[in-house]
Request: fold
Amino acid sequence: QVQLVESGGGLVQAGGSLRLSCAASGGTFSRCAMGWFRQAPGKEREFVAAILWSGGNTYYADSVKGRFTISRDNAKNTVYLQTSSLKPEDTAVYYCAADYPTPGFICARTRVPFRMVEYDYWGQGTQVTVSS
Reply:
């Protein structure tokens, strides 16, 4: 069973930065992609950023493009989300997610997945609060 554990959230002033980490463990096959989503109070969960595990292609939501950077460390099975120029509207619980291939199949992604249904495993989330 795959487990995802996020860390790095906290309280930061507007304009500040945080680095979120998500460590993956378990799983028999290599993952196709990992992504970050967020959910603010009273709102639906939304896509933030994602990265293909092989090749490193990335994709970002327009709201964070130029301010957030997603990266991965294959050896550590960890994905990072470096945030900068944080705004109060970035306040949310940030969730890590992993996309794995169907057992017996290999990853065949032709683009970076950005929809929740494309991900198979989810972390518990880490709170990011940006004060004005």
User: Anything to note?
Assistant: The mean pLDDT is 94. The first strand starts at residue 3 and ends at 7.
